[in-house]
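hey can u run this one w/ adenosine-5'-diphosphate bound, need the structure tokens asap thx
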Amino acid sequence: MSYTFLETPIEYLKGVGPKRAEVLKKEAAVFNFHDLLTYYPFRYIDKSKLYLVKDIKSDAAYVQLQGEIREVQMIGGGRAKRMTAYLCDPSGRIELVWFKGFKWLKGKFKPGITYTVFGKPSVFNNKFNIAHPEVEEAENTQSTFNEKFQAVYSTTEKLKSIGLGSKGFNKIFRNLITSSKQNIPENLSRQIIDQYKFLSREESLREIHFPTSPNTLSKAQARLKFEELFFIQLKLLKQKYIRTQKVKGHKFPLVGNYFNRFYKEHLPFELTNDQKKVIKEIRGDLGKGTQMNRLLQGDVGSGKTLVALMSMLLALDNGFQACFMAPTEILANQHYDTFSRMLGGLGVKIQLLTGSSKANIRKEIHKELEEGSLEILIGTHALTEENVRFKKLGLVVIDEQHRFGVAQRAKLWKKNVIPPHVLVMTATPIPRTLAMTLYGDLDISVIRELPPGRKPIKTYHYYDTNRLKIFGFIRNEIKKGRQIYIVYPLIKESAKLDLNDLMDGYESIVREFPAPKYQISIVHGQMKTENKDYEMNTFVKGESQILVATTVIEVGVDVPNASVMLIENAERFGLSQLHQLRGRVGRGADQSYCLLISKHKLSNEARTRLQTMVETNDGFKIAEVDLKLRGPGEMEGTRQSGLVNLKLADLTRDEKILKAARQNAISVLELDPSLRNNHYQKMSNYLNFTNKHLKNWERIS
Ligand code: ADP
Ligand code: MG
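ok here u go:
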């Protein structure tokens, strides 16, 4: 069976035609029959159940009722004119209301007849009513399950204007399903279908649009979810197989002078077990002769920087250069300082390149890079510029990778004929399901353990009415010699307003903590870099006790003496942001605190966020909650990827299916990476078909 039918342009479907096709393409990205078949319903109207009036408890779901219709009345005049009636069943009565179309309805309802009424209750004057219900005589009420259980499709104003509301969709689906018989090729292997007792693809697609029973519907859903996740994994993993088999990588067999001397003489502390484990994993990758593509996940403060540094030394030991890219200048500076300090005496040639590097330094850097005498280059995205050319780039480290676009990262990739090894690091833990989808083609290392001696940060949530008490607490911490962060939200759309908030806050803090006893620094996005750096450095050096800032301090800034992170308007921050901010403290040996200040009135979601922060310090748990609250498409770092725009599967709920899908994809590729075997013909055909038609498939690394 071929894909000719599924490839048929949508205008050729009975009931569509060129005009509707135009709108379907634009509004729903439906170009051909296959696109329409996988335009899945987002829910079903369940007409299989009958409710009693007294059981209507919420306005969340549609209900179907049966009873007599009484007291039909016209009320009001002009635009407020409406018709009302009561549906009466043995348990009570509910008002029905029509704002139009009543001319035709009036006199239609006869006494003594039982009607079936279907609609969505809403609350009016503290009572439920149903506006514009569907009504029919109970005798005529459709009886097959198929007709009682109706698919609902998402639609838009434009689609509705051409008759493609949910009902209109139902009609064209009926035409499509009728003509698709024997025309939908299977895409999974017999073995997988038997193993999970899946319905065939054709059956599943029919069921999902026109269910015949709740049981078969859920079987169809399970199969189609599996299929969706399976082919994503198959694609990702296939890329990985190709990379490891076809793309050559530098081989770093040596553990040499730099690495060994650093380890023996320069390491200021014992590595944690997790750090050791990850370094071992990386050494394994670098020795293989294939390109490393590894994601290192570790909570803030877990010591990723050191792992990166030691990996770079391995590159140097093997005669290669390395570079390290950070998302902001502040961070690049800080890393440059840390690396220079830690490497002091080893004789490693290291430099910093950012947007504000002076022309003469730039020139020198360019020259030394091309000669190969410069061994480590730290910087911002300035590293990706065309004229930054390495003699022998062996390893690229990208810190806080989610801050960079895919294209920026790809540029670093291309800085050699043989691509450098790539280590991307993130302190925004990604839930496993998401990581498997988003980074399915990368190897993943995780640091879960924090360096020893850290006291868990204590987190409290206060309402803004408690501010005086909090100031008292801060005064006390400062007396003990500690430093304080105070952070205000900054959201791009209202940068001005936020800046006002920040300046107001700053002034009240200056009043509360007057000079000369207290010194206060301030940093925000609209400041010139040199002023920002000056203020930042004052705080880093301990010359000011309080740093008032917007989220520019979110990533990476390291001031071990800071013990309090106070976050104003905490309800306006996302969970991962709050967690990142909290990670700025708790870096020294002292007890640290995170104080979340919010207004009294909070949405449920905001309350859950704040509660989660108070309850746990575990970034992975927080990421799970975040995923549940926001869904995969909104998680940090996922927005640029089409990978998580799933049509049916749900990464928060379908973890089991995802694991099975991934496992099966691995098994298939292990046996037959190019899918040439007859068993995999169907998969391979489908893969070719989707590759031909999918456009938004992006590489992550
Ligand atoms: P992150 O993973 O957030 O990038 P860093 O690498 O900045 O974390 O490390 C946080 C702090 O912990 C740094 O001050 C670093 O020097 C320190 N650190 C890293 N590894 C260890 C260790 N094994 N023992 C003690 N302190 C460590
Ligand atoms: Mg870091």
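Residues 307 and 511 are 44 Å apart (CA to CA). anyway lmk if its weird
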